[in-house]
Each structure stands twice: as structure tokens, then as C-alpha cells.
Design a protein that fits this description.
The protein is α+β, with helices and mostly antiparallel strands. It has two domains: 10-147, RRM (RNA recognition motif) domain (Alpha-Beta Plaits, 2-Layer Sandwich), CATH 3.30.70; 168-202. It is 31% helix and 15% strand. It has helices spanning 10-13, 26-33, 61-68, 99-109, 168-179, 183-202, and strands spanning 49-53, 74-81, 88-96, 113-114, 117-118, 120-123. Strands 2-3-1-6 form a four-stranded antiparallel beta sheet, with helices on one face. Strands 4-5 form a two-stranded antiparallel ribbon. Strand 4 (113-114) and strand 5 (117-118) form a beta hairpin. The two termini are 20 Å apart.
Length: 203
């Protein structure tokens, strides 16, 4: 058992303990049916990149660099903007020169106040978490209780420990079927992600 999702399964992250067998909202079904591929145009090393959200509308790339450069050398910052209006969509990415400084920013930069807003920091999921589906397609993590579309297994809302745990063999078989990947590949990918999460938790 792991409190964080090591492979993104829309059905599981829609459950408080990761054990649901049926979707409880239509967004989960939408995420299950999404054929999402990560953006190949995204530059940089995902191991060295953090995701920063809940940004103030006036927060710019310069602000991000000023705040996060205290953790180490930054390669690039990007605030994601709406293609039509050009306004900030409230989140961005900061790439550091090393994964060590990115990990430090992840650990210490969360809940930093920038322009009056408390930001949320996570590692980049799109290129690091197999099976990832973004929020706009019904996936993602967190969410608001009022929407009835909470997502678990992330930093802010980890899974609760279920009453009955699957064995490692049962879990690998289940994930292999869902991701349509060989069991050996799923085992290798999940082991690497579990090791990374352990490193994050212990530092």
C-alpha cells in the first residue's frame, strides 16, 4: 500500500482509499475514456521540474523566479496562459538545474505566499506518472468537495489505508490490465515511482 498514486488510474484516484470498482461521477468515466498523450513540445527535464498552482492572476514568471531561486539555480520558468485571452490560468512550472534542488523546492516551497496567494507545489505529473490524465479531462488530483469530483492519491489528498489490501501480485495484474502493458513493465515503472516517492517523503 502507498498513500500516493504510483500509476494514475482515474477509477482509483476517484476513491478515498483507492479501492473503488465503479466510477461515482461522470468525470471519472471521461478520464477513463480519454486517450491523453503528454505534450511532446514541453521542454526540460521532468525530474528537475516542479508544478506550482493557485497563483495570483498578477503573478508572472519573474515572480516565480524571484521566489524559487532561493532553492537553487533555475533553468526556466513558465506561467501557463489562456490562448485566447492571454491571461494566466493560475499555474506554472519551474525547472531547476538539478533534481536535488527541485526536490528541495517541492519540500520547502509548498504554501509559500506569492503576491498574497498561498501556492501549492507538486512534482510534475504529466511526464512522470504513467497513465496521467489532466483535470480538464476528468482526471488530475485534489478538486473541490462542492463539485463532488475529489481526486485522491496526490500530495494534498493522499489515499487512506483501505481495510483490505491487495497483494503486490494482484495489484500488478490489475494495473497491467488497465494500462494494457506487460506485467514486467508495470512492475518496473511502479517500483521506480515508489522509490521516488519514498525519497520525497524521507527528505
Amino acid at each position: 500500500w502507498c498513500p500516493r498514486a504510483i500509476i494514475y488510474d482515474p477509477l482509483k484516484v476517484g476513491s478515498i482509499d483507492g479501492t473503488d470498482c465503479q466510477p461515482h461521477d461522470r468525470a471519472i468515466i471521461r478520464a477513463q475514456n480519454a486517450d491523453y498523450k503528454s505534450n511532446k513540445k514541453v521542454k526540460g527535464d521532468p525530474e528537475c521540474t516542479i508544478f506550482v498552482t493557485r497563483l495570483h492572476p498578477k503573478t508572472t514568471e519573474r515572480h516565480l523566479k524571484e521566489v524559487f531561486s532561493r532553492f537553487g539555480e533555475i533553468v526556466r520558468c513558465r506561467v501557463v496562459e489562456d490562448l485566447v485571452t492571454g491571461r494566466s490560468r493560475g499555474y506554472g512550472f519551474v525547472e531547476f538545474k538539478s533534481s536535488t534542488t527541485a526536490l528541495m523546492a517541492y519540500k520547502r516551497g509548498n504554501k509559500t505566499i506569492i503576491n498574497g496567494s498561498e501556492v501549492f507545489v507538486d512534482m510534475e505529473c504529466e511526464r512522470l506518472l504513467p497513465g496521467w490524465v489532466p483535470r480538464r479531462l476528468g482526471g488530475g488530483f485534489n478538486g473541490k468537495k462542492e463539485s463532488g469530483q475529489l481526486r485522491f492519491g496526490g500530495r494534498e489528498r493522499p489515499f487512506r489505508k483501505p481495510i483490505k489490501l491487495l497483494s503486490k501480485k494482484e495489484l500488478i495484474i490489475s494495473l497491467s490490465d488497465k494500462l494494457n502493458k506487460p506485467k514486467d513493465q508495470v512492475l518496473k515503472e511502479s517500483s521506480l515511482i515508489a522509490a521516488k516517492l519514498s525519497e520525497i517523503s524521507n527528505k
